[in-house]
Amino acid sequence: MALAPVELWPASASAYAREIDRLIWSYTGLILFLAVPIIACLVVFAIRYRRGSDADRSNPPVHGLRLELAWTGLPFLATLVFYFWAADLYSRQWVPPKDTLDIAIVAEQWMFKAEHPGGQREIDELHVPAGRPVRLVMTSQDVIHSFYLPALRLKQDVLPGRYTTLWFEADTPGTYALRCAEYCGSEHSAMGGRFVVLSPKDYAAWLATFSVDRTLAQEGEALFRRLGCSGCHGARSVARAPSLAGISGKPQPLADGSIVIADEQYVRDSILQPKRQVVAGFAPIMPSFEGQIGEEDLVRLVAYVKSLADASAEAAPPGAAVEPPR
Asked: Which domains does the chain have, with CATH numbers?
């Protein structure tokens, strides 16, 4: 598939991208405002006071407190405004809202594979609805990649063995470029595709074009049972193992006395390195599945565990106390 072209200054497809543009152009204007007078003075003084000129060099000023304070303090205060502006943009980008549409991204040489919650899959394309927050949960099967959406002014490294996240809210339907922005091998320049923003109605119609039998979480449930995980972690299991219902996103006490949040990374690590973070009150007897399942299967298992949190919340009657997982 041919890559979508990247323009010198790509069109913006979100309010965040437009604010980034305002920050860049405003800061560029400040730099020009500060630099042009200095350059002009350098040129004028170089000509006026060149060797052999008849300029009056008697009684030159050697100190000017007001001038020194002005050329030091005013630029500092002006750039400080941009520091807080950029810091605010950065901090907002790392705090996603709670109602995001989570899409899994698995990178490999040389493609990006996207898996939607309903089980729909695409390669080198990412379709999202306009006006809805989207969170990408990304990992790599081989080397470091970088998921880059020029139209959103966003880029995030995609790392092997880790989950990284990126969230956005696109608001302008259209087709934009998708790129890998980290050199990842001989075919790096051809790695990428299309980022497609659809209206909510068109996005629903696009999802309906896929023939899927099971959602991502349902596929994870089937894998969960096939691997024998339900024998210990299932609701009716006789083995004494930590319950998985309701743990997603919640604090999890560990045997060493520390507490971790049961996010996607914790679930992934617990599958591949179960003895690394043992739940308090349980023995480190779970076998490792490292080398037995790939990243796409891990994505499905993580989606299933996250769905158990939703199921536990729905099952509990209003006002009822839910017993914390052990």
From this structure: 101-208 (2.60.40.420), 216-315 (1.10.760.10)
